[in-house]
Design goal:
- The chain is mostly beta strands.
- It is built from two helices and 27 strands.
Length: 368
């Protein structure tokens, strides 16, 4: 009798221990035999961009990705909850961390994408995954991640203009070193959709300068005086950085840099009645701080356009500040038109519909 009682007691203890272990050590989520792959990224553009900003990622370039799927049991309990896999992002974002990818470099080959140490999808096909991305990946190109691997919800990234120690107006700024910074997000992606699509959005504003020589007699087309542009510069104090909170919009740190962008440094002739478009042959990309609207510090910062030219044998220099009615937004390219009328320039800023990426002006990010 005692032996049977001992056997019963041992069996009960084993069952109790097994139940306890099942609660404390849950079975990990099962994975499928398919790897998460990213398709060729697309870029949100309204029309083809010919120079400067890109409308297709260069072959061999890379972007960073953060990936999410399962939420954890509680803020202080990191146990992943399998049933949360099928929940939409909005229902689980407060308890989800980037457990799939964090600051993962993905390289574009020209037709597809690849990354080291591939990650598999979970086995259930109804799980919903979310991905956030930024381009370019290289830290020296300007992007940094503000949210760490233990941050719940959508990440925050910061783009800082890679201008070095530019703290004086005499600093020679190189516009060719400014990348076409972009971000993307794909929410609630399922495994059976195949590759993960990423549609990138531009975050900087672009300027394409144009010079128009309107000094021509309409009644006598053969008349008019040629205009020679010796130099064109944009100089002053510029805004330096922008923070993208993927679920809250943009923030603009109180960070600036100083220097001069030289767009034209050798003589360009503009015959009477003609125009030179995209002068400098490259779109100038800048941070547009839409939280600042003052004339002296609004949007691009406290800056001015300086043009040196010769007309009718007389060499002159003319300076312009930003027109108060010009409110540039990120994701849009503008054309500052220097219209030479009579014997002086007039500066006009227009939205270049041929180069418009997207409508701007809203401080909230809206992804499609």
């Amino acid at each position: 009798m005692k032996r049977n009682q001992s056997i019963f007691t041992l069996a009960a203890l084993v069952l109790a221990m097994t139940a306890c272990n099942n609660e404390e050590i849950p079975v990990p989520p099962s994975y499928s035999d398919q790897y998460i792959e990213f398709g060729a990224p697309s870029i949100h553009v309204e029309a083809e961009t010919k120079v400067g900003p890109i409308d297709q990622l260069p072959e061999g370039s890379s972007f960073g990705v953060l990936g999410y799927c399962l939420a954890q049991k509680a803020p202080d309990d990191a146990t992943l909850v399998e049933s949360s896999g099928a929940l939409p992002w909005e229902n689980k974002k407060n308890l989800i961390k980037p457990t799939l990818f964090y600051q993962k470099e993905v390289t574009y080959s020209g037709s597809g994408c690849s990354y080291e140490n591939p990650v598999k999808w979970y086995d259930p096909t109804n799980y919903l995954y979310s991905f956030f991305a930024y381009y370019p990946f290289a830290p020296e190109s300007g992007f940094s991640i503000l949210s760490d691997e233990n941050t719940f919800g959508a990440p925050s990234v910061k783009f800082t203009m890679p201008v070095g120690n530019a703290n004086d107006i005499s600093y020679d700024l190189n516009q060719h070193e400014i990348p076409d910074a972009m971000v993307a997000q794909e929410i609630d992606v399922q495994r059976n959709e195949g590759v993960v699509p990423l549609n990138f959005y531009h975050i900087l504003a672009g300027l394409n300068f144009q010079v128009n020589n309107y000094n021509k007699d309409p009644e006598d087309p053969g008349t008019g005086i040629e205009l020679t542009v010796h130099s064109l510069k944009l100089q002053g104090e510029f805004y330096k950085s922008i923070v993208i909170n993927f679920d809250k919009g943009y923030d603009y740190p109180n960070e600036t840099y100083q220097g001069t962008y030289t767009l034209v440094e050798s003589d360009i002739s503009v015959p009477a009645g003609t125009s030179i478009t995209e002068i400098g042959k490259r779109t100038l990309l800048l941070v547009s701080n839409i939280s600042q609207t003052g004339k002296e510090n609004g949007y691009f910062g406290n800056i001015e356009v300086v043009i040196e030219y010769t007309f009718g044998g007389e060499r002159k220099t003319q300076r312009f500040t930003r027109p108060e009615n010009f409110l540039p937004a990120g994701g849009t390219i503008y054309t500052p038109q220097l219209d030479f009328i009579s014997n002086a320039f007039v500066l006009n800023f227009i939205v270049d519909n041929n180069y418009q990426w997207e409508d701007g002006g809203d401080s909230d990010i809206t992804f499609e």
